[in-house]
Amino acid sequence: MTQPIDAIEGVGLGFRLGLADAMLSAPQSQARFIEVCPENYVGVGGRRARLLHAARERWPVVCHGLCGDLAGLAPMQMELLTQVKAMLKEVGARWYSDHLCMTHIAGAEIHELLPLPFNGEAVRRTAQRVRQVQDFLELPMAVENVSAYGDMPGGEMTEPEFVTAVLEEADCGLLLDVNNVYVNAFNFGFEPRDYIDALPLERVIQIHVAGHFQEAPDILLDTHAMPIADPVYDLFAYTMERLPRDVPVLLERDGNFPPLSELEDELIRLRSIMEAAS
Ligand SMILES: [Fe+2]
Fold first, then answer.
1. Cα 275 to ligand 1 centre (Å)
2. Which neighbouring-strand residues pair with 206?
3. How many whole angstroms from 163 Cα to the centroid of ligand 1?
4. I need a surface site. Which of 105, 224, 236, 269 has the fewest CB within 10 A?
5. How far away, in angstroms, is 209 Cα from ligand 1 center?
6. For the segment 194-235, what is each residue's pLDDT rounded down to a tens digit?
7. What is the pLDDT of residue 106?
8. Distance between Cα 269 and ligand 1 center (Å)
């Protein structure tokens, strides 16, 4: 499988409304690309449309879905996918990504990323849905490993075994969120490097990194509202040293926004780790 990752490279920053003005007014940036969530832009005009237009003038754009319900039980949302497809074409997207989880229950969007029971039935259903989206969008798909806070009943395999099975059955890419691996390793008590080692790293087409929050002595929350933690930088370095090729790396910051200079410093640190590993 050859993924067209050549047009997007280096480090990028999630383009969020709370950061948009600062990003667009900064004279320069370490970011070589941005990532946007289509659900926040399709069918919307006004300020959001203007900001996206201005951002596209400055950066290549990667699109990352939020509520595609890739592993769900309800019929696929073809109206939304039609809008997403138009946006992907407009921004010249080379791939599309969404989360490896459920986002709807009984037809209602729950605004959460629900984890799955890690079993064969979920693998087959999810892979079939990923293929359906991939075929409809006429673009390669990447699925993202999600953070979780409880085991779903009915599991038959480990999380990396589940992720690998979906990737192979759907023949799709992996958006590897290193912070999510770290958060799950902490919350469920496994070794995060073993998780990385168990993945088919040749399928990684993009990396996410983010900050988390320690809610309790034994619970980390994947908030995207804190600086990247040092152990996550270490896991990121471990991962980059093992990837068979360079892939783009995105910093996700979704709240508690600091001055942009702090995020630029995080991008510099990520890039230096990438360069040391390549
Ligand atoms: Fe992520």
1. 22
2. 175
3. 15
4. 105
5. 7
6. 999 999 999 999 999 999 999 999 999 999 999 999 999 999
7. 60
8. 18
